Amino acid sequence: MTTPAAPPNKKPDPERMAVLRSLPLEIKEQISGAEAHAFLYDEELPDSLLEKLRDFLVDDSD
Q1: CA-CA distance, 42 to 25, in Å (whole number)?
Q2: 3-state SS of 33-53?
Q3: Whole-number pLDDT of residue 58
Q4: Calpha distance 45→37 (Å, rounded)
Q5: I want to staple 23 with a disulfide (CB 3.0 to 4.6 A). Which of 1, 27, 39, 52 is the partner?
Q6: pLDDT at 4 over 90
Q7: In angstroms, rounded to a whole number, what is the distance separating the alpha carbons of residues 11 and 51?
Q8: Of 29, 49, 48, whose CA–CA distance to 40 is shortest?
Q9: CA dihedral 56, 61, 12, 7 (to 10 degrees)
Q10: What is the pLDDT of residues 10-52, one digit of tens each?
Q11: Cβ contact 27:50 at 8 Å
Q12: For residues 6 and 41, is the Cβ–Cβ distance under 8 A?
């Protein structure tokens, strides 16, 4: 599986990059390139990524 290419003018969100970098190593090792790409470029997150990050996500729907 290949990682999707970023649109030419679009850069990854620096805040999201910081979040990924702050994750524990064992979590980062489980995240695929496609999952990281979706997270960094604010695309729809795959269910597999949401499952891996469930302990780190905050529900702000309140």
Answers
A1: 22
A2: HHHHHHHHCCCCCCHHHHHHH
A3: 86
A4: 9
A5: 27
A6: no
A7: 25
A8: 49
A9: 130
A10: 899 999 999 999 999 999 999 999 999 999 999 999 999 999 9
A11: no
A12: yes
Amino acid making up residue 46:
P
Where do we find the tokens 């695929």?
A: 32
- How far apart CA 35 and CA 10 sit, in angstroms, is 17
The predicted model scores a pTM of: 0.80
Read off the amino acid at residue 11. Answer: K
The tally of CA atoms less than 13 A away on the side-chain side of residue 59 is: 3
Residue from 44, 62, 45 nearest 54 by CA = 45
In whole angstroms, how far apart are CA 4 and each of 29, 32, 37, 51, 54?
19, 11, 7, 21, 24
Total residues found in the chain within this entry: 62
